[in-house]
């Protein structure tokens, strides 16, 4: 018998329809909504003047044409962020006005060459623009489109005087979103900032869990310990759900007890990230030989749905919608 999720499974567009458009652009989010996404996901980083914008990381050399702008050449640098040295250009060194002169590029051109046809077309959007898009498209399509912002590296940004937690909550409050039934989920890989946000808002909070390592803020020793029944009960004291790496649902192709354990703790489970390319799929779902060939993504998502997950992040919302529509699920 298929385990019942705590909530009807939702389709979360990971950075928009990022399998078909450069990620974190209004075009990617808009296409995701057209393809049936219930939720669009902006990763948030700050500009030098404190505006939250949607980028996977604050380093933008791989996702914009900043390297083609000689006026910004001197801003290339190396920083230590969450324990790692990162070289490039960073949003926190640019004003919003300067960022708006840049254009987005495909982050994975080797795997997604077709997406490069859209390079140079789209701006870096602000959180405010993503909120406006979600509200406007909700009216147009006749269903509520939620947003799922991730606070990226909150400890690092707080250390340089650009705290993201309070500005995020203020902007969501300004949008009229303050209650647990608002169309918002706030996620983080760190722990202390989610606990802090829990004191600032009643919006739903989701603790992200990676397949390895531990939170960069050191608030917990490891994600593995957080994924145990004891760790999940602790998470439930401040969060509404967990966002586990999809690999945590399985051990040698056999299901783990994570979904059941999380549900026993009263937590929803939104797994990440489902991508169509063989490079991101378990071998049993490969189709073709090349890393960029598309495998059986629908099959992989269906396997996770059979475990009772409450939602999933995907770069390919159209295939996610097809998986949810499959009639052969138990």
From TrEMBL:
Top-level taxon: Bacteria
The record's listing under InterPro entries reads:
GP_PDE_dom, PLC-like_Pdiesterase_TIM-brl
* Membrane-spanning segments: none
Q: GP-PDE domain spans which residues?
A: 9-324
Tell me the keywords, alphabetical order.
Glycerol metabolism, Hydrolase, Signal
**Is RNA-binding set as a keyword in this record?**
no
UniProt record, GO biological process = glycerol metabolic process; lipid metabolic process
List the Gene3D superfamilies. Answer: Phosphatidylinositol (PI) phosphodiesterase
Q: Which GO terms describe its molecular function?
A: glycerophosphodiester phosphodiesterase activity
Top-tier EC class: hydrolase
Question: What EC number is given for this enzyme?
Answer: 3.1.4.46
Catalytic activity line of the entry: a sn-glycero-3-phosphodiester + H2O = an alcohol + sn-glycerol 3-phosphate + H(+)
* GO CC field: periplasmic space
Which family does the entry's similarity section mention?
Answer: Belongs to the glycerophosphoryl diester phosphodiesterase family.
Q: What is this protein called?
A: glycerophosphodiester phosphodiesterase
Q: Which organism is it from?
A: Sphingomonas aerophila
